């Protein structure tokens, strides 16, 4: 059995790989690498923009693979490795060089924790992908965490604030994002099929108004949108806690009842 599986995988590789979705993944990896190059060169605003570009490529590769029927195990593994670079190493390095260097050891440990939690989040996602409902992510998605880092840098530049304006808040943000990635807090994946079905006309009007607001203040709205998404997980976790407790107690009583019957 152990000899047959590698042979099947090798034969699959000889047949070739799907180019289109993996090109998008390579684009995401390139954007993450160039983010680090810009960070080392001290161009933090450009680095932040490349993280957003990487997020766009990352969103496209999966959709292209599903729409064209070109999903593969190779693509899944390549995507995860690219995400570790683009949404773990790149934003961690960006935050350290931009704002966390004055904290010394506490600063670079924050950057490393962000990278480690991103890698753990991706590994857990790959293991649980077939057992967790598709409408919800368990833990903050790594692209969202990295995009929040990017939005924070761009927002500070937009407001004319230096990185030293509130270094402690930035340090807390990095630790907060890192822990959310490996938490059991659930986030909306926006993969609900009902979202693309017929909706009331008012939804279209609201969507157009939202686009106008985003076009008027793109940096501020980007920061606001990602902040709301980041906070939606903890807020939802707190609000649904009483219901979860009642469900757990009901399951416990049912389990005890089955034990007594046995």
TrEMBL record:
Recorded topology in the membrane: Multi-pass membrane protein
Major site of localization recorded for this protein: membrane
Record's subcellular location: Endomembrane system
Top-rank EC class of the record's enzyme: transferase
Catalytic reactions on record: a CDP-1,2-diacyl-sn-glycerol + L-serine = a 1,2-diacyl-sn-glycero-3-phospho-L-serine + CMP + H(+)
Highest taxon listed in the record's lineage: Bacteria
Segments traversing the membrane: 17-37, 107-125, 137-157, 169-187, 199-216, 222-241
Its EC number(s): 2.7.8.8
UniProt KW Lipid metabolism keyword: yes
Record keywords: Lipid biosynthesis, Lipid metabolism, Membrane, Phospholipid biosynthesis, Phospholipid metabolism, Transferase, Transmembrane, Transmembrane helix
Cross-referenced InterPro entries: CDP-alcohol_PTase-I (IPR050324), CDP-diaglyc--ser_O-PTrfase (IPR004533), CDP-OH_P_trans (IPR000462), CDP-OH_PTrfase_TM_dom (IPR043130), CDP_ALCOHOL_P_TRANSF_CS (IPR048254)
GO molecular function, one term: CDP-diacylglycerol-serine O-phosphatidyltransferase activity
One term under GO cellular component: endomembrane system
Gene Ontology process terms (BP): phospholipid biosynthetic process
Family: Belongs to the CDP-alcohol phosphatidyltransferase class-I family.
Protein name: CDP-diacylglycerol--serine O-phosphatidyltransferase
The gene coding this protein: pssA
């Amino acid at each position: 059995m152990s000899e047959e599986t590698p042979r099947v995988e090798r034969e699959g590789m000889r047949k070739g790989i799907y180019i289109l979705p993996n090109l998008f993944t390579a684009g995401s990896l390139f954007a993450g690498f160039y983010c680090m190059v810009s960070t080392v060169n001290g161009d933090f605003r450009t680095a932040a923009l490349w993280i957003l570009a990487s997020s766009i490529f990352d969103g496209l590769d999966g959709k292209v693979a599903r729409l064209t029927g070109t999903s593969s195990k190779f693509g899944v593994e390549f995507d995860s490795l690219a995400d570790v670079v683009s949404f773990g190493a790149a934003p961690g390095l960006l935050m350290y060089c931009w704002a966390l260097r004055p904290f010394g050891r506490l600063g670079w440990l924050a950057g490393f924790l962000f990278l480690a939690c991103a890698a753990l989040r991706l590994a857990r996602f790959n293991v649980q992908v077939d057992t967790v409902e598709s409408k919800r992510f368990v833990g903050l998605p790594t692209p969202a965490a990295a995009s929040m880092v990017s939005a924070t840098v761009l927002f500070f530049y937009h407001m004319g604030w230096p990185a030293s304006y509130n270094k402690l808040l930035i340090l807390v943000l990095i630790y907060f994002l890192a822990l959310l990635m490996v938490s059991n807090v659930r986030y909306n994946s926006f993969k609900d099929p009902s979202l693309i079905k017929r909706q009331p006309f008012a939804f279209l009007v609201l969507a157009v108004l939202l686009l106008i607001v985003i076009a008027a203040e793109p940096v501020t709205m980007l920061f606001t949108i990602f902040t709301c998404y980041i906070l939606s997980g903890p807020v939802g976790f707190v609000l649904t806690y009483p219901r979860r407790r009642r469900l757990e107690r009901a399951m416990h009583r049912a389990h005890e009842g089955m034990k007594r019957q046995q």
